[in-house]
Amino acid sequence: MLTGCYVPLKSYRLVPPQCTSEPCLKNPSALVVPTPDPDAAKEFEPVEDSINKARDCVKPDEPICLSFVEVDDMGELWDKAQLDTTLSLIRRANDAAGNDPAKAPIVIVFIHGWKNNAAWGNDNVRGFKSSLQIVYRRNQGTRPVRGIYIGWRGDLIPASIPVARQFSLYNREATAIRIPGATLSSALTQIALRTHENKDALAIFVGHSFGALLLERTLSEMTASQLSVENIAQQEADTATSAGASEDAAAQQLMAKRATASRADLNIFVNSAASATEAKQMLNFLTSSEARYTPFRNPGDKVSADDDRPLYVAVTSTADAATKLALPIGHYLPDVGFKQKGSFRNVSTEKGNEYGLACYDPHPDPHHWTLTSKAEGAQDQSSYYLSSAGHMAVLQSHQMLKAINDKQMKVASTGEVMNVSPQAIAECRKDLFDSSLHIISTFRLYDTHQCFAIQERPKRCNGTPYWLMEIDPDVVPDHSTIFTGRFISFMIDSFFTQPNGRMMNRASPQLTLSAK
User: Using the 8-state DSSP alphabet, how is residue 51 labeled?
Assistant: First the structure.
C-alpha cells in the first residue's frame, strides 16, 4: 500500500530503453560521452543524459566512455554483466594505448550520495559526464578517460514528498553503512587491477556524501590489508635479495606489485557524510605505520617534503550544512544510547585506560607525539561520532587560503587573515610564497581568476597521506553542488597535477610504511 511512497528498488541501466531515434542504444551500461570542443569558451557545461542521444561505447579508441555498476540495498550486484562490461572497456583502452604513456587511460570511479541514483537524467550522472570531459580536455585530449558510475538507491522518497524525503537521511545512512562488503570490495579491486595492467594507467576513486561513507567503509579494511601485504612482501624481497635467493625475491616482489596494483592511485571523499570514527581508524593505521606516499619520486632518491602526496583526500565545504548540522543532529539520539551503554572511550591518561590522539608528521622532529588532554586537542570518541572528519580541526592536515586583496589571504576553515607576497598572489605561483608557509599548491578559479592556495596546517597532528581539509564556499557552495568547473578544476590543479605542473602519471607509485 505504501509502495508509491518510495522510489522503486531497481536497476536503471540494464534493460535497453525504448527510443525514438536510430541507431537505438543496445547496452545502457556503457555509453559514449561526447568529446568536448577544445575551443569551447566554457570550462564546464552539464552534458545531457538523454536516451535518444546515447551511443554504445563499442570502439576501443573512443576518447571518453561511461559505464555503470549498480548494487541493491543489500550490497549485491544487480547483474555481474555490468562489471564485466566495465572491465572489458578498461582492458580495450589499455590495449589501444600499447606502450605509449601519453595514451594510457585515466579510470575514474564515482559513487553518488543521498537523493541520487543511476536514473536517466539524474543530475549526478550529467555532472559526472561533464567532469570526465574536463579531465580529458586538461590532458590535451591524448589520454582516454573511462568513467565508472556506481549506482545505489540513494534516493528513497520521491521529490514530490519533500518533508518525508528529508527524513530518509537516517535510512539511507544505514544503507550506505550496510552496502560495503565482499561484492563492492571485489569490484573495486578488479577495477584497480585491470587498470594497472597498463603500468601508466591511472585509477581514481571518488565518493560524495553517503557515497563517500560507502567508499571509505569499503576501502579502509581492504587498503590496510593491501598496504600491509605490500610492505611485508617488499621487506621479504629485500631480505631474499641480500641472501642471494633470487627466485624467492622475485616471488615476493611480484606479491608486492600485485598488492600495489590492487588499490587506487588516489581516493577522494567530497563532503563526506561519514562520522569521523570512520577516518580515525585509518589515520591510526597510517600514523602507527609512519606511512608516506611519494608517487612522483624516482626510486632510490631521498624523500623530501615536496615528494609527499595524498593517497586519500577528504575535502569538505565550510558551507556544507548537511555534514556540519544535519549529521550531529541525526547522530544525537544514537550518541546518547552509546553513552548509556558505555560504548565510548573518553580522553584519559589513566594507566591501562589511556585514550588520546597519536600524531605523526614526517617533516618536523620529533615525528611522533600524542595529544593526551582536551586542552591539547584530544577528543572523546563521542566527539568523532558527532562530526565528520573534515570539520574536525584536530584531524585536518591542510587548509585552503583565498586571496581577498592584492596582499592578503584568508584561511577558509578559521577565517584568519594573513599577509603574503603581492607577487605570489598576482602570479599565483607556489614558489613565490614564503617557504615558511609550506604552500603545497596554488590554483585560480577558471572564471574569476581569483588565486587560492593549499597550505600545510600549522602545528598539525595529521601528517599522513590521508589529507583532510575544509574548503571555501567559492569553490563548493554547499553540500550537493560539486559538479562545477570551479571544483573540478581545483581538484585537477591540486591533486591530479605533479609538483612540476605536469599532469599526474603513475610513474613510480610508492607508499612506504615503517619496518617496525
Answer: G
